[in-house]
Amino acid sequence: MYGGDEVSAIVIDLGSHTCKAGYAGEDAPKAVFPSVVGSIDQMDVDDMTSNEKNAAVDSKNNVKDSEKGKGKRKLFVGSQALGFRRDHMEVLSSFKDGIVADWDIVDSIWDHAFRECLLIDPKEHPMLLAEPSSNSQQQRERTAELMFEKYNTPALFLAKNAVLTSFASGRATSLVVDSGGGSTTIAPVHDGYVIQKAVAFSPIGGELLTDCLMKSLESKGVMIKPRYSFKRKEIQPGVFQTVDLDFTNTTESYRLYSQRVIASDIKECVCRAPDTPYDESSYSNIPMTPYELPDGQTIEIGADRFKIPDILFNPSLVQTILGMDNFVEIAPSVRGLPQMVIESINKCDVDIRRELFSSILLAGGTASMQQLKERLEKDLLEESPQAARVKVLASGNATERRFSVWIGGSILASLGSFQQMWFSKSEYEEHGASYVQRKCP
Amino acid sequence: MAMAFKMATTGMWVTDECKNSFHEMKWRKVHRYIVFKIDEKSRLVTVDKVGGPGEGYDDLAASLPDDDCRYAVFDFDFVTVDNCRKSKIFFIAWAPTASRIRAKMLYATSKDGLRRVLEGIHYELQATDPTEMGFDLIRDRAK
């Protein structure tokens, strides 16, 4: 048993869009940065003339060499390192369909969190990691191996996202609707256990909504200029001049990443879930909302303010947006939020369905969308069995809603009664990585 | 072993006072309700308040704080349609929205420990505001 009460634990919630990291016991994560990384194949870099200039920048930012497959690649982690445009830098994600696919990237993200953001030595702190509810045994063992072998952490605990959200709202039993960047997961929790067979998953998350908004704006002739592609300076007080810059070696994925940063800000500023299902005709006369792009151009957003969030409720709307072709193939199998909630509850034991209907919890960045709670509650009231008392709960505080998983982990790891739960390094050495299944159910 | 279960059973101690009060309520009918609270420092679950047999459900609702969590048990006496006198015991996990997340976490992870000691509970409720533990709900469930 690990008796680590004296040293503060580190809590990490690595989501598909952002990584949240900080010290246990605090009420918000210290570091929040993108879960995507920039990557340059070393072959390319060697050919470049600007190599020396790059090296100077690299020493300031976080750069990691990683060996993978055939060649070496350089990884750039963190908002700052990603914000700087580099020739041939691709933007990569470690996630595929809600679970980790590239461990090299995960490793570089953890390393960045420990050494650049929190400035701690992982050897000295127990680690509590939040994990997707549907994480496989193989994934969990891999996590334990990396943490104990590479970082030499004294103790580890893996907690399921849904369970943390549920506990943080004072409930051992609830239905957690976690809508994040890359996906939406609906997980019933009963007495602190995730009911695996009833977990529902959909690839619709904040990023898809951002892409839809971007494509929809493009079809109306609005092009979002990435921040790196122009210089803007004040030539006279109050008068700005924008000069386009041309970088031919910028990768497509980096251009997209930079555009998404802007589009997602537009989304967060203007979008709200409509009270009733979206239809083209009744929203055609909606008042326009202005938004000023970084290059100074002001755009007006009308029906998209409501149409984009409604995709969560009615995924087939994606098909009406030009340029979202790659989504169309999977669209028919994807259901809207209310249907997913009802299906998930119906897969649970009859005895607990009533209780699940009356404690639906919202978590994640996308679920923090304005009016989403009200709309979900209304749709569920119409579609649920009559005897059910539908209640959707969400923290009134935006930070708490966005970071509910991290906050849950932070408090859990700081409770006195939790300290006996840690999976210690000596237990790992004695029983091996598979012991994580026993220690962290 | 479920995380919450282990934390509750080995991390918290339920005092004898809790067990005794519950027995008195169940067998001798001297209490209408009991409110329990957790003392985080000493890791003890203790009795916060007991309600006399003359008190009602509203008195219980009134004795739960707005900004902190509690557990409560309530003995609900009623007469069925075919004139049978019955009694059902409810367990309520009270976690109001305004309470601190730390308290919510503590109470949610420690519930099983108390629940296991209290034998003979018929129904369980979780509530974050008074509407979720309304008297109508109690009546509905007991039917």
Number of helices of chain A: 17
**N-to-C span of chain A:** 16 Å
Number of helices of chain B: 5
Q: From the alpha carbons, calculate the radius of gyration of chain B and give it in angstroms.
A: 15 Å
Reconstruct the topology from this structure.
The complex is a heterodimer of chains A (441) and B (143).
Chain A: E1 10-14, E2 18-23, E3 31-34, E4 36-41, H1 42-47, H2 51-60, E5 63-68, E6 71-76, H3 79-83, E7 90-93, E8 95-96, E9 99-100, H4 103-117, E10 127-131, H5 137-150, E11 155-160, H6 161-168, E12 174-179, E13 184-190, E14 193-194, E15 200-202, H7 206-219, E16 230-236, E17 239-244, H8 252-270, E18 289-292, E19 298-301, H9 304-310, H10 325-328, H11 337-346, H12 350-357, E20 360-363, H13 372-383, E21 392-393, H14 398-402, H15 404-414, E22 423-424, H16 425-431, H17 436-439
Parallel strand pairs in A: 1-10, 10-11, 12-20, 20-21
Antiparallel strand pairs in A: 1-2, 2-3, 4-6, 4-7, 5-6, 8-9, 11-22, 12-13, 13-14, 13-15, 16-17, 18-19
Helix pairs in contact in A: 6-15, 7-8, 11-13
Chain B: H1 3-11, E1 13-14, H2 16-28, E2 33-39, E3 44-51, H3 57-62, E4 70-79, E5 85-94, H4 101-117, E6 123-127, H5 135-142
Parallel strand pairs in B: 1-3, 5-6
Antiparallel strand pairs in B: 2-3, 2-4, 4-5
Helix pairs in contact in B: 1-4
Structural write-up:
The complex is a heterodimer of chains A (441) and B (143). Chain A has 441 residues and is of the alpha+beta class. Chain A is 36% helix and 22% strand. Chain A has 17 helices and 22 strands. In chain A, the strands form 6 sheets. Chain A has a 6-stranded mixed sheet, sandwiched between helices. In chain A, a hairpin with a 2-residue loop joins strand 8 and strand 9 (99-100). In chain A, helix 6 crosses helix 15 (404-414) and helix 7 crosses helix 8 (252-270). With 143 residues, chain B is an alpha/beta fold. The radius of gyration of chain B is 15 Å and the shape is globular. Chain B has 5 helices and 6 strands. The model of chain B has no long low-confidence stretch (mean pLDDT 88). In chain B, helix 1 (3-11) packs across helix 4 (101-117). In chain B, strands 1-3-2-4-5-6 form a 6-stranded mixed sheet, with helices on both faces. The chains are: A alpha+beta (441), B alpha/beta (143). Chain A binds chain B through residues 27, 159, 163, 166-174, 191-193, 355, 358-359, 389, 391, 393, 395-396, 400, 407-408, 411-412, 414-418, 420-421, 440-441, and chain B through 1-8, 10-12, 40, 43, 69, 93, 95, 97, 99, 101-112, 126, 128, 132, 137. Chain A: InterPro entries: Actin, ATPase_NBD. Chain A: It is found in: Cytoplasm; Nucleus.
